[in-house]
Amino acid sequence: MTPDSELPGREALRAACMKFGVNDEGARLLHHRSNAVWLLPEQNLVARLAPDTAYRRERAVTAIAVTRWLGDAEKPIALTPLTGRQPVVTSDAIATFWPYRPSNNQPSPADLGALVRRLHTVTAPTFSVPHYQPLRRLFEALALDDERAAPALAGPDRAWLRGRADTVVAEFRRTRFPLGEGLIHVDVHSENAVQDHRQWVLIDWDQCCIGPRELDLVNGLPDHFHQPAGDRELFAAAYGYDLLGWSGWTLLRDITELHSMASYIRLAPSKPAAAVELRHRFHSLRTGDATAIWHAIS
Length: 298
Known about the structure:
CATH superfamily of one domain: Phosphorylase Kinase, domain 1
Order of helices and strands: HEEEHEEHHHEEEEHHH
CATH architecture of one domain: 2-Layer Sandwich
Strand order of the largest sheet: 1-2-3-5-4
Helix content: 25-40%
Shape: globular
Strand content: 5-15%
Largest sheet: 5 strands, antiparallel
Distance between the termini: 24 Å
Structural class: alpha+beta
CATH class of one domain: Alpha Beta
C-alpha cells in the first residue's frame, strides 16, 4: 500500500516541530484534506504536513522556493514561509511552516482577480519549476484505491473515472491556450488567500508550476460549487479577461472538478464525511447532474 493512503497525525507533527525547533504545545488541527494543517498557537504558526512521497517532496520544495522568490516582489503576492531550512522531512512526513494569518473576512472576487493578474505579470523563476501535469493526483489516488482491500470506489466506478480522466487529459494535450504559459498557482479560491500586513496574498502553493495561465481563472467558471454569476463576473473584470468567452473553458472546469476527487478517494476509508461527499460527487459526474452542489470537507 502506498504511504500516501492517509495524512500524517499528531506524532508526525511533534517530530517535525522538534526537528524545525518550534513548540507544538496546544496544536490544533485546522484542515484535513490534501494536507494536515495544524495551528501552533504558542508561536502563532501553521504547519502543513503531508505523507513523505517523492511527489509530495517535489511539491513542498517548489512551494518553499517559489514563495520565497515571490517575497522579493515589490507588491506581495504570496505569504512568505518561515526562515530556516524547509521543507522538514521526518520518518513518515514532510512539513512546511508558515506564519499564521487569521482573517476576519474573505477576499472579494475582485481581490482574487487582482492577485492573479499580478501573479501572471511575473516572469518565470530562473530556478527549475515543474510543469503542469493534468490530473496526476487523481491517477495516483485511483492507483491507491486499486490496492485497497476495501476500495473507496467500486471497480466499475474506478474504471469509468479513469476513462473519463484519460479523455480529458487527451483533450488538454490537444488544446492551445490563448493566455500562454507562465508561473501559476492552480488552486485560487477564497480559502487560499489571507491578509498579511493589510494586503491580500495567496497561500497553499503546493500545486504551483509552469502551465497555462487559464488554470488560475477557473474561479470565474460555473461549476458544481455554484458560485454566484455576479461574483464570477467581478473576478473576470478584475483580472481583465473573461474565460467564458473562450470555447475551451469547459475543459478547465472538467479538469478542476476531476482533480478535486483525488483527496476524497484517498480519505474516504478513514473519514466518513469524505466518503459521503465522494459518492455524491461521483454520482453527479456519472449522471451529468449539473445541479448537484459540491461541498468541501476539511
